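Something for you to look into today, if you have time. I want to see for myself how the chain folds. Leave the record below and I will have a look.
***
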Amino acid sequence: MAGFTSPPAPDVQTDLAIDAIRPRPQQPRRSFTPESLARLTDSIRTHGILQPLSVHQTAAGYDLISGERRLRAARTAGLTTVPVKVFSGLTERQVQQLSAVENLQREDLNPVDEADAVLDILSAELDLPKDQLTPRLERWKSMRMRDPALARASEDERQAIAHLETLFRGLSRGEWTSFVANRLPVLRLPAPLLEAVREGRLDYTKAIALKRAPEDLRDALLAESDALSVQQIRQRIQEASRTSAPHEDLNRALETFRRLTARDQLAQLTPEARRELLSLLKQAAAVMGEGSKVPARQRLK
């Protein structure tokens, strides 16, 4: 299987005009904070670019494979040329893999970009679209947990899982089952949490804790997250859940009552049912009118 397990070598290393390099339409979305870009720009002004960018030469020009942050910083620093490794004759799948592998080698990679980069590699190696990959990985993980010897797996499934294990040894990213259990969930975070993790404003473990919070509470806790531990965030969510649960029950009951007491439904009541409903409504009015300090049964005597 070509690709990550047999990475292509560049044809040449040279300097190239910045304006000749263009991001690919399929370029993975990566996050660059203004602060990190400013630091890199200062470093490039002082030391230049120490690690060449990677580009793919095609008939139309030079497509960027990796090094988007260095390219932006170099332009801001006023450079007109940058050092590049030039590849040619690659398939889109090889370009995708090379881009993902080089991104994984970044020291400042956040958990969102890391999970994306690993999925890019797996998608190419296993020949599966990314949107089909996550459920497949979760199914294989469950299979491995229930049946470590994979005695009930098909031959195709055994080969795919064996290939996963080989790939993850090469990636130095731990066990693939750990990736599925602990890293993939980050891609399912609500958009505000996903962006906060991607931009480095929120720790991954806090984001997972915040995931289950109601939206308004989640936003409030996100704003305070720097001052809260993961345990404190969980406690705040549990406390809010205990106090809000009775109101949610009442709201659901009232919604059901409104639906059942629509005008056409009332017209179909028998005289006996009408009397019983009136009695219950008087009890409800008594409860709401007198407050809740005295038990309703005592007030209705």
Observations:
- The first helix runs from residue 34 to 47.
- Confidence is low (pLDDT under 50) at residues 296-301.
